[in-house]
Design a protein that fits this description.
By secondary structure, the chain is an alpha/beta fold. It folds into 3 domains: 14-30 and 76-186 and 228-390, Response regulator (Rossmann fold), CATH 3.40.50; 189-219, no CATH class; 415-567 and 577-590, IlvD/EDD C-terminal domain-like (Glucose Oxidase, domain 1, 3-Layer(bba) Sandwich), CATH 3.50.30.80. Helices cover 33% and strands 12% of the residues. The protein contains 22 helices and 14 strands. The protein has helices at 16-19, 46-49, 54-64, 95-108, 134-147, 162-171, 199-209, 215-220, 222-225, 237-247, 263-281, 286-289, 292-305, 310-322, 328-335, 352-358, 360-370, 386-390, 450-456, 493-496, 557-566, 576-584, and strands at 78-83, 112-117, 152-157, 177-181, 188-190, 193-195, 415-419, 422-428, 439-447, 469-472, 504-507, 519-524, 541-545, 550-553. It has an 8-stranded mixed sheet. A 4-stranded parallel sheet has the order 2-1-3-4, sandwiched between helices. It is globular. The chain binds FE2/S2 (inorganic) cluster. Residues 91, 123-124, 159-160, 197-198, 231-232, 236, 238 line the site of FE2/S2 (inorganic) cluster.
Length: 610
């Protein structure tokens, strides 16, 4: 102390810890500029990030623990990347990588990407059926979008139900939204032959049951069918829905067919990221894309690609979410006169990789456009019309994509059947069926549920032949519950051994998009809801007439009334989501959505919680 007396204390700089780094250098913890007030009202994300108060502090500060600098919260569009990645959804197993490419595009365009997970629905593993959870996943998507500081959304979709669940949930919010499909797997190949996912399983299983294929060969095919990242590469439900995304205008041109492992799939992801930022800036909402015209285009496109019957249920539900009037009858009126142009399994022989090389969906749409079968002025997510997007689209292989004048199959689209067995409708996909069975009258062989079917179908004593009509009950929305894909019942072995490959089958179930056969599906009302289907008995005669759109149970009303009095409804779930589902699920002709989810609640910012 004595030594220091009379001297001036040395000038001491603020401790480094105060600033983090020496002054005059850029620091991550420097006092920040206030968020400009003028920016606050521009985007909904600013309700979280744009205030200079405790709400803004909380919104920004916790996000910064991920390393984001302060200037990212300056009012630029926040893009939610809705990701259905899951190791239990193998078709979407590459989606983390895909999301990174979307982020590149978002950053490039001046946006702020934020990836978030939602319930992922894997078709092959989820039990009792992934369809039970489509509406639950859509609720997750809707609420996740609305509850978060998101201005625009990219939907990453692949495996069957991940596409409709994301579209439905996003539609109920109606923000600027763009769909990006994950792409199909490369072609399967086994014993030097093309092997399609799904379709090949059904065929090989029948061959094994008929004694034409050994179990060892059947098991060897496992490793040869699904040999790359991506979703099923047949024109099953996943590929169909990816085509629907593109035909609806909800994805960039080329979305449907680029294989998952092709570099151009990642280019597509990057361009999608760029585009969603522009969509937010121009406030191009989902409801401006998903118009009645867009759905009409999608229905015709579905016929031309030989698409899945599942698209019927999913698009009906989606239309109801976004407020577009669409009915089961529209599928018949608009699509049933459209020929199938695409020679892909299960209706034909090629696979999605071939489809992409041949020109993909733009080449198909161009054929429809040339016949004036499309609404060319329907707006798409890139800000151009569908007509502009497909102008001059080439086709490189006419064995894969036929011309409209020389179609692959004239019988296409979805035929909607009615009659006393299906007063509210049923559907059949003629391109996957056998024309010689399209007008058929046969004796009913009835299975009360899928367990009953599995228990008896291989019984040599089962009283059945190829002229019979196999009837399966209690597999509809309430009955399964979840409307399982079991409508394409495998044929009895004693019929298969005769070389018979198809029989008429009728149920309230759905059918995998990769499956085939003369299969009447989605019978409504379903058996578990007390539909006439519940009253069918062994030996009743059933008439199917696809051309006349008839499905008739030849039993008089008085007899049906007597049977109804004796009918006992099947037991229903009593707790949890399954109870909520069966209490509120709509029938197939309404899209099998939950009644309280029809429509939307918009994207208004929820009230503050702090
Ligand atoms: Fe995922 Fe077929 S199992 S698309």
């Amino acid at each position: 102390m004595a030594q220091s007396q009379g001297r001036r204390a040395p000038k001491v700089s603020p401790p480094l810890a105060f600033w983090g780094v020496p002054r005059n250098r850029v620091s991550v913890v420097r006092p920040h500029k206030e968020i400009p007030v003028t920016e606050k009202k521009k985007l909904r994300s600013q309700a979280w990030f744009g205030a200079n108060d405790i709400q803004g502090f909380i919104g920004r500060s916790w996000m910064k623990n991920q390393g984001y600098p302060h200037d990212l919260f300056d009012g630029r569009p926040v893009i939610g990347i809705c990701n259905t990645w899951s190791e239990l959804t193998p078709c979407n197993g590459h989606f983390r990588e895909l999301a990174d490419w979307v982020k590149r595009g978002v950053w490039e365009a001046g946006g702020f990407p934020a990836e978030f997970p939602v319930m992922s629905l894997g078709e092959t593993l989820l039990r009792p059926t992934s369809m039970l959870f489509r509406n639950l996943a859509s609720m997750d998507v809707e609420e996740s979008i609305r509850a978060n500081p998101i201005d625009g959304v990219v939907l990453l979709m692949g495996c069957d139900k991940t596409t409709p669940s994301l579209l439905m949930g996003a539609a109920s919010c109606d923000l600027p939204t763009i769909g990006l499909s994950g792409g199909p797997m490369l072609n399967g190949r086994f014993q030097d032959k093309t092997l399609g996912s799904g379709t090949g399983v059904w065929q090989m299983s029948e061959d094994t049951r008929a004694g034409k294929m050994t179990t060892a060969e059947f098991l060897a095919a496992e490793s040869c069918m699904n040999r790359s990242k991506g979703h099923c590469m047949t024109m099953g439900t996943a590929s169909t829905m990816a085509c629907m995304v593109e035909a609806l205008g909800m994805g960039l041109p080329g979305n449907a067919a680029i294989p998952a492992v092709d570099a151009r799939r990642y280019t597509q992801a990057q361009l999608t990221g760029r585009r969603i930022v522009e969509m937010v800036k121009s406030d191009l909402k989902m409801s401006q894309i998903l118009t009645r015209k867009a759905f009409e285009n999608a229905i015709r496109a579905n016929a031309a690609i030989g698409g899945s019957t599942n698209a019927v249920v999913h698009l009906l539900a989606l239309a109801a979410r976004i407020g577009v009037e669409l009915s089961l009858k529209d599928w018949d009126d608009l699509g049933s006169q459209v020929s199938c142009l695409v020679n892909l399994q299960p209706s034909g022989k090629h696979l999605m990789e071939d489809f992409y090389y041949a020109g993909g969906l733009p080449a198909v749409l161009k054929e429809l456009a040339d016949k004036k079968l499309l609404n060319m002025d329907a707006l798409t997510v890139n800000g151009r019309t569908l007509g502009e997007n497909i102008e001059g689209a080439p086709c490189w292989n006419r064995d894969v994509i036929h011309t409209y004048d020389a179609p692959f199959k004239a019988e296409a689209g979805i035929a909607v059947l009615q009659g006393n067995l299906a007063p509210n409708g049923a559907v059949i996909k003629p391109s996957a069926g056998s024309p010689h069975l399209f007008k058929h009258r046969g004796r009913a062989v009835v299975f009360e549920n899928i367990e009953d079917f599995h228990h008896r179908i291989n019984d040599e004593a089962l009283d059945v032949d190829e002229t019979c009509v196999m009837v399966l009950k209690n597999c509809g929305p309430k009955g399964y519950p979840g409307m399982a894909e079991v409508g394409n019942m495998p044929l009895p072995p004693k019929v298969l051994r005769k070389g018979i490959k198809d029989m008429v089958r009728v149920s309230d179930a759905r059918m995998s998009g990769t499956a085939y056969g003369t299969v009447v599906l989605h019978v409504s009302p379903e058996a578990a809801a007390g539909g006439v289907l519940a009253l069918v008995q062994n030996g009743d005669m059933i008439e199917l007439d696809v051309a006349a759109r008839r499905l008739v149970l030849e039993v008089d009303d008085a007899t049906l009334e007597m049977r109804r009095k004796a009918w006992v409804p099947p037991p229903m779930p009593t707790r949890g989501y399954a109870k909520l589902y069966v209490d509120h699920v709509l029938q197939a002709e309404k899209g099998a959505d939950l009644d309280f989810l029809v429509g939307g609640s918009g994207a208004a910012v929820p009230r503050e919680s702090h």
